[in-house]
Every structure is written in structure tokens, then in C-alpha cells.
UniProtKB/TrEMBL annotation:
<feature type="domain" description="HTH lysR-type">
    <location>
        <begin position="1"/>
        <end position="58"/>
    </location>
</feature>
<dbReference type="InterPro" id="IPR000847">
    <property type="entry name" value="LysR_HTH_N"/>
</dbReference>
<dbReference type="Pfam" id="PF00126">
    <property type="entry name" value="HTH_1"/>
</dbReference>
<dbReference type="InterPro" id="IPR036390">
    <property type="entry name" value="WH_DNA-bd_sf"/>
</dbReference>
<protein>
    <submittedName>
        <fullName>DNA-binding transcriptional regulator, LysR family</fullName>
    </submittedName>
</protein>
<comment type="similarity">
    <text>Belongs to the LysR transcriptional regulatory family.</text>
</comment>
<dbReference type="GO" id="GO:0003700">
    <property type="term" value="F:DNA-binding transcription factor activity"/>
</dbReference>
<dbReference type="GO" id="GO:0003677">
    <property type="term" value="F:DNA binding"/>
</dbReference>
<dbReference type="GO" id="GO:0032993">
    <property type="term" value="C:protein-DNA complex"/>
</dbReference>
<dbReference type="InterPro" id="IPR036388">
    <property type="entry name" value="WH-like_DNA-bd_sf"/>
</dbReference>
<keyword id="KW-0238">DNA-binding</keyword>
<dbReference type="InterPro" id="IPR005119">
    <property type="entry name" value="LysR_subst-bd"/>
</dbReference>
<dbReference type="Pfam" id="PF03466">
    <property type="entry name" value="LysR_substrate"/>
</dbReference>
<keyword id="KW-0804">Transcription</keyword>
<keyword id="KW-0805">Transcription regulation</keyword>
Length: 300
């Protein structure tokens, strides 16, 4: 038994006439008669009573008609769901993100636009440190990752999509004497202590930037596991913080943000994805992010 047998029977049960049913189905009447006869033979019972003028539905036929309608409706729903899955409209997208990517607003912008375009897709969010995201992608734990480019060379099979770049700034206590300056230079910072984010290898990356900025080994006073704590400690005077300008909107009381004079280096955020991504919902998410980039709608 195939779905076409059910469609043929439903049309005949509703039209009560072989000629009209065949016309509705766009087939010839003998073919319809043969298909209905095959269906009855398979079921082992008569579904119709044929008269010279019209067709009547038997008691078994009436029950079978209701079941056939349900099966056809379910099949149509299955086709619709399959098509929507293929377009990425439904399904689960697993998003990994680093803390600074979330604080910068990049993740929020991407999620908001994706939800607007694909409201029925499901979202699973996980905070994953930058140096763990590559493994999470390769081990199929996440589908995409928002992260700074601490990996200079991504493992084979992964691709980096640049999202935004911003200048480096110094976050310091608003009561610090240097907070009175409109901008700071490398020389101003040589004798200062710093608080850095101690995500795996992130403190080393920040120390490397500071080393290039001040021309000597920086004095790291405190290593702490997240950016909010970094800024909180900076506001309390435990040290200065090197932060991307995209984080300067984070409302931590007592923190002053100052640009760095004549320092060309930039802080970058990327979306990291698999080269061979095949999940339609993940492909749709990546497409949304790319459209935001092309429309310059992401924070720069």
C-alpha cells in the first residue's frame, strides 16, 4: 500500500463517482478502478459499493476513510517538517561563546537576528573558553563558536570568519591619577600593575599585547577567571585592565576607560565554524551572521 492508494480512495469516497474522482486526480478512470481494486484486495474487504450511477462507501470504507485522512495529513506534515529542516527553519543550533564576545554584544546581535528570521529553531548556548572552542567544534559539542583569535593557527577542518575589531583601551579606577588623562601611552603604563583574565592562555595573550605596548615585561598583579571580575578589581584599584573598546560599555561602577595613544594593534572577534558543516540550521545561522557582517550591522 502506498500513499497514492489512500489519496485515490479519499478522492473517490468524497466524489462518490469514478469519473469525477479520476478527473480530480488527473488520471484515467480505468487506472483509478484498478488501484481501488488492488487496495481492497490488500485489505481483504470491500470499501465501496458500486452502482450504475454512483459509488457508496461501506462501513469499513467509512472507517478507513477517516484513518486515511489522518495518515495523509501526517504525511503532509512530515513533508513540511522535512522541507523546513532542509531550509534550516527548525532544528537545534549549539552556540559556544567566550565571555568577552558576549559582553561585546556580538552574540546578542547574532542571536536576535537569527531568532527574527528563524523563530522556530532551537538554541543551546554554552560559555566555552576560546582555547576550548576548537576541540568542542571538532568533537561535535558545539556548531559555531564566538571567540577572539587566540588560536593563531586553527586546527585543520575549522574556518575563522572575522566579525569585528576594536581598539585596545585601558580600564582603570576612576580615582587613579592617570584617569585625569584623556588618553594613555605606553610610557605611562610601564610602572603600572595589571589585572588580566586567566581563561586558559588568555592571560598569556594579554601579557603579549602589553609587552608590545609598554616595551617590557608587564607586572601582572592578579589573574582572575572572567572579565567582569577583571573590571571590578580595576575599579577597586588593584591594577589596570587591558580591554577591547567593545567592553567599554560594560557598566562597572568606578571604572574609567581611556584610549591608548599611537597603538595600532586591534582586538578581534571571530566566528569559528567547521569547514564541512552540513546541518541546515547551522548553515542558516552562519548565513545570518554573514549577512550582518555584509550589512555592517555588527559592532565594529
Amino acid at each position: 500500500m502506498e500513499l497514492r492508494h489512500l489519496r485515490y480512495f479519499v478522492a473517490l469516497a468524497e466524489e462518490r463517482h469514478f469519473g469525477r474522482a479520476a478527473e480530480r486526480l488527473h488520471i484515467v478512470q480505468p487506472a483509478l478502478s484498478m488501484q481501488i481494486r488492488d487496495l481492497e484486495n490488500e485489505l481483504g474487504t470491500a470499501l465501496l459499493i458500486r452502482t450504475s450511477r454512483r459509488v457508496e462507501v461501506t462501513e469499513a470504507g467509512a472507517i478507513f476513510y477517516e484513518e486515511a485522512l489522518r495518515v495523509l495529513a501526517q504525511a503532509e506534515r512530515a513533508v513540511t517538517v522535512g522541507q523546513r529542516i532542509g531550509r534550516g527553519e527548525i532544528g537545534l543550533i549549539r552556540v559556544g561563546y567566550s565571555e568577552n564576545a558576549a559582553l561585546a554584544g556580538i552574540v546578542t546581535q547574532a542571536l536576535r537576528e537569527f531568532r527574527r528570521q528563524y523563530p522556530d529553531a532551537q538554541m543551546e548556548l554554552s560559555e566555552v573558553s576560546p582555547f576550548a572552542q576548537a576541540a568542542a567544534l571538532l568533537e561535535d559539542q558545539i556548531d559555531v563558536g564566538f571567540t577572539p583569535p587566540f588560536h593563531q593557527n586553527l586546527p585543520e577542518g575549522l574556518t575563522r570568519i572575522p566579525l569585528s575589531d576594536s581598539q585596545w583601551m585601558i580600564g582603570l579606577s576612576s580615582e587613579h591619577p592617570l584617569a585625569a588623562e584623556s588618553e594613555l601611552g605606553g610610557r605611562d603604563l610601564r610602572n603600572q600593575s595589571f589585572v588580566v583574565c586567566a581563561e586558559p592562555y588568555a592571560d598569556e595573550a594579554q601579557a603579549a599585547v602589553l609587552r608590545r605596548l609598554i616595551g617590557q615585561e608587564p607586572k601582572i598583579a592578579i589573574r582572575t577567571p572572567n572579565w567582569i571580575t577583571v573590571l571590578t578589581l580595576a575599579s577597586a584599584g588593584y591594577g589596570m585592565a587591558l580591554v577591547p573598546s567593545s567592553l567599554s560599555s560594560v557598566p562597572i561602577e568606578g571604572v574609567a576607560y581611556r584610549p591608548i595613544r599611537a597603538f595600532k594593534e586591534r582586538s578581534h572577534l571571530n566566528l569559528v565554524v567547521r569547514d564541512n558543516e552540513y546541518r541546515p540550521v547551522a548553515i542558516a545561522f552562519i548565513s545570518v551572521v554573514r549577512s550582518l557582517i555584509e550589512g555592517k550591522k555588527l559592532f565594529r
